[in-house]
Amino acid sequence: MEGQDEVSAREQHFHSQVRESTICFLIFAILYIVSYFIITRYKRKSDEQEDEDAIVNRISLFLSTFTLAVSAGAVLLLPFSIISNEILLSFPQNYYIQWLNGSLIHGLWNLASLFSNLCLFVLMPFAFFFLESEGFAGLKKGIRARILETLVMLILLALLILGIVWVASALIDNDAASMESLYDLWEFYLPYLYSCISLMGCLLLLLCTPVGLSRMFTVMGQLLVKPTILEDLDEQIYIITLEEEALQRRLSGLPSSVEYNVTELEQELENVKILKKKLERRKKASAWERNLVYPAVMVLLLIETSISVLLVACNILCLLVDETAMPKGTRGPGIGNASLSAFGFVGAALEIILIFYLMVSSVVGFYSLRVFGNFIPKKDDTTMTKIIGNCVSILVLSSALPVMSRTLGLHKLHLSDTPRDSDTAKPSANGHQKAL
User: Fold this and answer.
1) Which of 334, 348, 426, 421 is nearest to 93 (CA)?
2) What angle (nearest 5°) sits at the alpha carbon of residue 211, between those of residues 210 and 212?
3) pLDDT tens per residue across span 296-326
4) CA separation (Å) from 174 to 186, 190, 192, 228, 288?
5) What mean pLDDT value characterizes the chain?
6) What is the DSSP code string of 359-387?
């Protein structure tokens, strides 16, 4: 009987591993396909020539798509964990959701952490150097020469980073134990380096999110059709049309030698055409879209912003006056053990909405900063170098989102507790993500 129980437990563990691997593959395949369509929407079409550079661009495109899919997975895992916890609490004995357990969620977090490290330290540097490489002088030009140059650049970059961290550790903490810990590349160095990058991502999020919260109203105002109150759109369209015709006559009358005036007039004419399209769109919009959608969206944004600020203020106040409110590492409820909110499923749904809202606001704030203004992708006119920069930026922001949500009190779920009896226990492969 003991032998049969051991075989049965071994089969159950095997089937659970296959099930979790299949679910992870399907989720990542969907995210990869969506990310591919997003990147190809913005990628410059002139980069699609059929030669050696086309192969390099295609490889860089696949690596960037992989990175963007990992970033999307890192963002979606936090809401997925919260909603999974509430589903397990609502239907603890349901046969059809037995696959949704703590082992699966923990495995997804470990994979997200592993792939984030892989993309941040290997794939994206390789894609950038591979895109800029031409091969060493004296060697035969081709893909192999460019791969060789890229690998050499990656090795030199790794040695440079290792040396910088080694010197910084010697200057800050001149201790034999800390120096010996740097020899352990997998268990200490990479998790520590990833934690430093997550810290920089958190600081960037704290800088971008307030800017994004204030810019969300302007961005939505540009996307939506505003109500026409005390405005005559026909008269405005007529005036814009006359201005467009006047600019076209001035352009046709200027000699081709006056390049500065021609360029300036062409830019002004382009701005007038854009303004005319906006006015025509406002005229064609229905009364429901003008008078109902715009006010409803603005009120919703105001409510979400107010709730976010209130929750953050309450959490900071609790951290200041109550020592028990401080994060306690691995202590707390695990998956399916307790609800994350006093309001149950409604509170969890509100947390998910706020997390998505904060992530969107941080991205809007990131592109609104003057330093990163040139990173804004343009449809069908974005180079692969700029796409790589955007993917790295989004990856850093997404990797810092769980930490910031935890710090601001929007996420209290712990994944390091022992799973329930119905779960299949699985050892962690990455120690620095346990406290999430």
Assistant:
1) 421
2) 90
3) 888 888 888 888 888 778 877 877 776 555 5
4) 22, 20, 17, 68, 68
5) 76
6) HHHHHHHHHHSSTTGGG---TT-B-HHHH
